[in-house]
Specification:
Keywords: Coiled coil, Membrane, TPR repeat, Transmembrane, Transmembrane helix. This is CHAT domain-containing protein. Helices cover about 60% and strands about 10% of the residues. It is α/β, with parallel strands linked by helices. The strands form four sheets. Strands 7-8-6-9-13-16-17 form a seven-stranded mixed sheet, with helices on both faces. It has a five-stranded mixed sheet with strand order 3-2-1-4-5. A three-stranded antiparallel sheet has the order 10-11-12.
Amino acid sequence: MHNGLLYYKKALSVQQNVDPKNYNEIFTSYSCIGTAYTKLSNYKMALVYHEKALIVGRKAFAADHISIGLIHNKIGNVYQYLRQYDKALFNYRKDLEIIIKNFGNKHYYVGLSYMNIGIVYVDLMQYDTAFDYYKKALLIFDKEERLDGLLYLYNNIGNLLIQKGEYDKALLYNNKSLDIGLKIYDRYHEDMAVLYMNSGDIFHSKSNYKRALYYYDKALLIFKEIFGENHFRLKEIFNRIGNAYSKKKEYNTALKYYKKALKINKYLFENNGPEITNSYIQIGRLYFKQDMYEKALLFFEKGLDILQNINSDEYLLTSESYFNIAKIFHKQEQYEKAITYYDRALLTHVKNKGVSDFRNAFDPNQYYNLQSILKILKGKAQTLQSQFLKNNDFKYLDQGIAIYKNADKVVNEIRQSYQNYEDKVSFAKQAKELYKDAINAHLLSYKKTHNQQDLEEAFYYAEKSKANILKELLNDTYAKGFAGLPEEIIEVGKILKTNRAFYQGQIIEQLSSESIDTIKINDYENKLFDLNRKEDSLTHILETKYPKYYQLKYQNEVIHVDDIQQKLDVKTTLLEFFTSDSTSYVFIVSKNNIYVQELQTPGLEKRIKEFHESITSIDLQNYKKQSQHLYNELIKPVEDKFLGDQLIIIPDGSLWHLNFELLLTQKDDTNNPALLSYLLNKYAITYANSSNLLFNSFKNEDASNLEIRRECLAFSFSDSTQITETNTIRLLTLRDAGGDLPGTRREIKAISDIVDGQYYYGSQAIEANFKENASRYNILHLALHGEVDNDRPENSKLYFTKSKDTIEDNLLYSHEIFALNIPAELTVLSACKTGTGKIARGEGIMSLGNAFQYAGTKSLLLTSWDVSDQTTPELMKFFYANLKEGMNKAKALQQAKLQYLASANINRLDPFYWGGFYLVGDSSPIPFKNNTTLYWVLGVIMFVILLFLFFWYRRKIKN
């Protein structure tokens, strides 16, 4: 590049001497020299020569000549590198104006110009505006079929999504860019390095630092090959590598890379400018992590001084500097100073600096970059809380509580902006940390005021931390039904959802096969990518053109304690848990009271794991020890607040893996499992994802629908490679079946004595039959094998048979269930481990049950471990008989377990054999058809017919 610059300058000198009025040639030389300086990251000289080119160009060309537009584009690039965004936008818009005048508004160059403007708005953190420009570019690139344009655009959309925290969605776009790049570039192209760098950014944001470093190293290799040692691209990659090592707590290695980046910045920017500040911030953070606060403060202040000296409009760096300084003052217990700097950090993000009352009338839409606002608000609230604890002045606590309310508004805005499921789960963890602090603040206030309002506010935050994704999904379904959407739009949404489930299934099938077809996988992934784009577009249309739909989908109301108490009877108490690392809170809500207890629970997850293992390994002594310890830790401190004999438990975190009914209420000397002091003996227990989901009905349906639907649809797993009979029979018919039946069929026969319906087994127990009939029954009983995928919960599945039918693969995946309509009163998943799964912090357990809940099921009977075929039929017989007698589901399950204990074989009394089932959701009784009247009517009719035949026959004989 240096040699090229030398030749350009020689050419310019010759042109100026030979023909100084040959403006066309001189223009070209100035432009090339400016571009060379840009490549060398010498932006000051690049501007000098581009400005000269613009002056000469106006002599050589008309004002709207395409060459003038090109120079404006290059000047815009330089100003963007210098973070002078207003000037960058001015020049990009001049370029766009000239391009449209020359080529019309559909040309490829117009798309590039839209994209450049969008990139500036990303830097300005005005993401919605940026995305509007990206969409304009996408329409052009799609129509023109320009792979290079799509590569740049997908890459930039990925960057935007990284900034918004939508990392999994960003990865989709980045992978798409990489696919295109590998087709059109060689391995040492700059754009390939940028794509690798972006991949590293995404994995870094997902805390996969090993994978991030892998991509950063690939990018570094290419950048060094192209640019040598002192280029801004190397500075960028050195900073990123430093960040990754810092996260890995390899601080010396991180500092080495930060210093390399700082050296390049000083070379490029002459020890001045925002990039120097950025390097100082990185080094300051490193010292802060090592509790070297004075050193950290020195670097933060040096960086801030640079920004103030050059009057930089780089508000993100300015805000970050203030934020970091505030954190140091907090650590040093200089709380007033810390609050001052938090306020300065907030103020730099205000869009309209003329709004003077921004602290009094908080509106998240007043600010840029809500992710930054969230961490600033959280930091300020924590500082005020610390100040209260130090000075015992409640004004600080009250101010902190007010800030948590503002932060909650920010959480709502961020949550609504996310479309990708994985990104929502990731953000839920972040939100839960905020809500933990808010709960603590209200409980501190309650100790002083004894005002029940504080308990209710604490409960509000506990609720806000739970099952938000499932709530939003249910809200979405409800909104589409009640917002007056056109049928064709609803149908498009259903088709997209069904197609997405299909292609996800095809990818899983390919990855599971012995010979993986990468071409097919790539084709399916491309189709999935296009479907995701279409779903995003549909969502945008729904949310902008149908405001009622938007309002219903994103309603953020949390059910009030008073409303819960109205729905509780005097026999039922609700327990809602909120867990953190070493402390948990339990909220006890009964008909007329609310109570909150803080519990010390260090090592809770480990103890629950040991409890679970003691059951599945049938280790009675260890089980007795662990179950009583957990009872003393979680239930005993609050049991005197329980009202009635029924409990609704809303677990949190690892508590989802705890079967509360199996806790022992005292130290039992007996080794007879039937005589142990189970909590089950005292309470009928049901579980729920959240109070909001349990008590707010998202799918209100006419009671007459229950009459229309039939009683029970049953399936049992079959190894159809060994089965010759293929039948679909009525459950009534199965009652009279004789002989030995396989375990799952014995289970279905046990319930056939009690309820009527349809039973599929053998080669008829296929996925297609389930999908066709699932919406027609009040009860679904699936005695199938299940498999939980903890890494990708959406790929958890139920097995119907081992063979494939002609339509389906007979594997019902969680993501397929999401696309179905299953409005059952109860779904029984008596497969293995259907109620287990990965715990998503802030969301709960990612089990197969979640998918059935979204599909419309009101309640679920799930299993915590591999259930026994030998004992399940007996347990199910008791359960269904109790339901038929009119018991609610929780009471029916409790009594079924107690009945089993009273009658079972002594060798099958351990909790492993009967304790794995638990109920989630609405525990109301199931309305069964009363066939007694029908039988009497039929009997009378038959009697009359027989009587008529008798007299007719006698008369005939006489005649």
